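Retro notes, structure queue

What went well: the backlog is down to a handful. What didn't: a couple of records were mislabeled last round, so from now on we paste the full input next to the output in the thread. Example, using Aminomethyltransferase from Streptomyces hainanensis:
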Amino acid sequence: MSQSSDAPPNVTRTTPLDAVHRSLGAVMTDFAGWRMPLRYGSERAEHQAVRTAAGLFDLSHMGEIAVTGPAAGALLDHALVGEPSALAVGRARYTMICDERGGILDDLIVYRLADHEFLVVANAANTDTVLSALLARRTGFDAAVRDDRDRYALIAVQGPASPAVLGRLTDADLGALRYYAGLPGTVAGRPVMIARTGYTGEDGFELFCAAEDAETLWAALTGAGEPDGLVPCGLACRDTLRLEAGMPLYGNELTTGTTPFDAGLGRVVKLGKPDGFVGRDALAAAAERAEERPPRVLVGLLATGRRVPRAGYPVVTADGTVVGAVTSGAPSPTLGRPIAMAYVDPAHAAPGTAGVAVDVRGTHEPCEVVTLPFYKRRK
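Corresponding output:
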């Protein structure tokens, strides 16, 4: 079992797969209060395996929160910017939870498991924040909010071979499982919820299982994936994969200082919900600003040289004027060039804008402004 979610904040938690990672020789790192695998060997090789075959990830650090009861949907409509009550059973939705000023507390995936049962999945670093906010916002709603982090382990298999790999271990109809949906089933004889969301830009599946079943499932997936070249993957390649796919990371592209409209994700905000929601007025104002003239725009930057733009580096014009800042950057194994996401002034946000560079420790690295994402898989 993973360590208790109410462990003291200075205690590093471990996932149910910690012994497996150490036996595989993983380089471990502290991440959001958890000891997690950074890489097992070459992060580039792990990245390329997900793009061409399949990769296996331990995501058990993510935070699961159950919301149940007759008013569970109404509570989530009030607490989040989306409208989870409109979800059909078995479907999922990407959404966010914001504060009264419209700042993003976290981005989330919400699954509807039954008529009066939802599963909210939060980022590891923000789970306590999300849990506290949901508990505070449930006043007046006939609903319960429960911390389920110790109930679940979460394993993902990602990549073009993932349907074949998982298909060898389950009788679930994976072909009928739509994107952003989940269904109960068995994998290697163990009960799981099989979801199809992903954070890599590839097709793939997430398995929510009992913590005590995690090692069995990991071993079964490893064996089933061997013919296809499946490899275990760590946080390092997960970050380059999501960056190529133009997917935001909380703490980088998303913060309490940004609204969903700043991040180009205004589509997740349902301003027309009849009973309103926390942050609605601030977000309505942010929507108007974004339509008239947004203060900044999230763009992709493709470096023309070899120096890598990193988070926090200034985006500048030819005369050195600062017009933005990098939020995420890394070498792209798929493109063979450094890439970055950055918030920039709208005047420099159009794809193809010339004369933009990133100040990489005093050297201006010329970049091309491009439309996100950098990479799209072939359907």
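Agreed that this is the format going forward. Reviewer comment attached to the example: Confidence is low (pLDDT under 50) at residues 1-5.
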